[in-house]
Amino acid sequence: MPEPLLSIRDLCVDYITARGSVRAVDSLNLDVMPGEILGIAGESGSGKSTLAQALLRTLPPPAVISRGSVRFEGRDLLELNEAELQKLRWKRISMVFQSAMDALNPVTTIGEQITDAIRAHENVTQAVADCRAGELLERVGIAGDRRRSFAHQLSGGMRQRVGIALALALEPSLVILDEPTTALDVVVQRDILEQIRELQRQLGFAVMFITHDLARMLEFSDRVAVFYAARLAEVGPSKDMTTNPSHPYTKGLLKAFPRVHGVREELASIPGSPPSLQNPPSGCRFHPRCGQAVAACAASTPEVREVRPGHWAACPFAV
Amino acid sequence: MRYLLKRLGFYLVAAWAAVTINFFLPRLMPGDPATALFARFKGKLAPEAIDALRATFGLTEGPLWSQYLTYLSHVLRGEMGVSIAYFPAPVSQVIGTALGWTLFLAGSAVVLSFAIGSLLGVAAAWWRRGWVDTWLPSALVFAGSLPYFWLAMAALYLFGFQLGWFPLGHAYADDSVPGWNLAFVVDVLRHAALPMLTIVIATLGGWLLSMRNTMISVLGSDYVNLARAKGLSPARVVLRYAARNALLPSVTSFGMALGFVLGGSLLTEIVFSYPGQGYLLVQAVRNQDYPLMQGIFLVITLAVLAANWMVDLVYLWLDARTRDSAS
Ligand SMILES: Nc1ncnc2c1ncn2[C@@H]1O[C@H](COP(=O)(O)OP(=O)(O)OP(=O)(O)O)[C@@H](O)[C@H]1O
Ligand code: SF4
Ligand SMILES: [Mg+2]
């Protein structure tokens, strides 16, 4: 068993507001292996982006990391001071933001936004960095001289590619993709995902891929973690999860999405709506919507246990 | 470029409209006040002066359109007649001198206030709920809400009269000889310091608050977050990413403020007897010096237009989005 690249233990992130605090990531345990694609799926508001930002420690207030540890390349990210963090960010972990439009500075060229990342970490001249920015853009299928463009001069798909080029600028060992394709049309989505996988094969970085599209993710990732209301519901190899989901929530989700391969199963959505994190249900948070729920489900939080080798689920009835 | 020319065209039309209104306004007044005015000055002024006055108002013989054309050509050549209060100095010369002092005093005060206020706004937003953010905005807003006249008088009384740190008025001492030498420059600065300070104090709070509030929302934006995630130094994140964007709304108000400066900071110049546009305007009104008033109004209008055009230029340079939507 190789050492995990990233090891999240008992991580809790809270938003502390005047109306009370909301735990957006609750007691999370999760590993990312070197060079793997780990998918993170969950409904809107289940805490995916919060987790991503917590790993880089760029969460803006009112969010606070209230507990846990995040081991990465032999260090605990939560113990690093500001200067150490500054060195590690982007060099070792980079990220593609959820909304490509808002993630680029509107008043400087995209080239400048790539070169300043390079020059913040490497002692190279502006000319060298600029040249590399051009190459990076070529790598994601954008003409190198577009680096003189501003964000608003590019299409949505191109902007997202710029985000990917930017994320690869320093060849980090982990790239977090926060719903990199949700705003794009299907053809562009597929192109971009193919491209990411291709680059990942060439460069060997690990990917944490966040989306709420479970079906697409099962196709794309090596392993998948499913979040429900700030907690981990199930994590396991994609193949295993596709054929044999064990958590009732995952089962429901897979029924709700039309299958990409093979026979299309009947579309059946999960009844009810996702709970608010302000006032979550007791015990297993899925119990109000779960077809298999019993009285004990509302009373105590189910433990995450290994149902099959490498496959974990947070439900006592999962097999 | 096309955009700039188009804007320039717009401002030219606006300027022309202002000039034209300036021509027709005296004519629209009931009972021909101009003639009545001349009657009052009969005997006081030489006949040539009265003729010059008539010419300024276009009250020459001949049809209206030819009067209008004469007037236009005069304005284009910067001839705005002869001042009554400062007879026999031509209006253009009187305004020219005053304009210089106003540009220097109020112009530098506005630039200073904008620069300091915006910087403090950036600091307040960055160290949010720090001491800058807690005390400075409320203190400065308080200072800004005091009646300016009162503030200026209090400053003059305390620092000028009681403590004697600064001169009591005028642009330079009566015994100093204007010229480009150190002694004169120091004298001018000493005279400008107190009026400038009062303007800065009265306006600083506004710049600070507007910059602070835009900064706070920009600091929460994704691109600032991404800049932080890139491992850039905090200084670079704040200046290059956040402040650069947060400055855009302030630039517009800055242009407006700059335009109004040339109208003269009326109250400042009155309290400190500073020989700028505002002081001049008061003199003109007091002496019923219509040619001078007309000239001042014209200069104010043109100044506001020119400042707006400059804002257009700066905006194009700061924000590529306007550059694109422009072409
Ligand atoms: N600024 C904030 N203030 C208070 N609560 C917040 C704030 N931002 C997020 N939250 C809470 O954190 C929860 C998780 O938000 P997060 O953005 O991580 O969700 P997500 O899984 O990324 O959703 P999406 O798929 O819509 O991007 C939300 O349900 C919300 O209750
Ligand atoms: S613990 Fe109970 S409610 Fe939760 S998923 Fe399992 S069966 Fe359903
Ligand atoms: Mg999100």
Structure description:
The complex is a heterodimer of chains A (319) and B (327). Chain A is of the alpha/beta class and 319 residues long. Chain A folds into two domains: 6-221, Rossmann fold; 245-319, no CATH class. Chain A is 33% helix and 24% strand. Chain A contains eleven helices and twelve strands. Chain A has an eight-stranded mixed beta sheet, sandwiched between helices. A four-stranded antiparallel beta sheet of chain A has the order 2-1-4-5, covered by helices on one side. In chain A, β9 and β10 form a beta hairpin. The longest helix of chain A has 18 residues, at 186-203. The two termini of chain A are 23 Å apart. The model of chain A is unreliable at 262-267 (pLDDT under 50). Chain B has 327 residues and is mainly α. Chain B folds into two domains: 2-76, no CATH class; 97-326, MetI-like fold. Chain B is built from 14 helices and no strands. Chain B has helices at 2-28, 33-41, 47-56, 64-76, 91-126, 131-145, 148-162, 182-219, 222-229, 234-261, 266-271, 277-286, 290-318, 320-326. In chain B, α5 (91-126) packs across α12. The termini of chain B are close together. The model of chain B has no long low-confidence stretch (mean pLDDT 84). The structure holds adenosine-5'-triphosphate, iron/sulfur cluster and magnesium ion (MG).
User: Looking at CATH, which topology of the largest domain in chain B would you report?
Assistant: MetI-like fold
% residues in beta strands of chain A: 15-25%
Poorly predicted runs of chain B are none
- CATH class descriptor name of the largest domain in chain A: Alpha Beta
Order of helices and strands of chain B: HHHHHHHHHHHHHH
From the alpha carbons, calculate the radius of gyration of chain B and give it in angstroms.
24 Å
What is the third-level CATH name, the topology of the largest domain in chain A?
Answer: Rossmann fold
Helical stretch tally of chain A: 11
CATH superfamily of the largest domain in chain B: MetI-like
Query: Could you say what the CATH architecture of the largest domain in chain B is?
Result: Orthogonal Bundle
Shape of chain A: globular
Domains of chain B (count): 2
> How many domains, in number, for the residues of chain A?
2
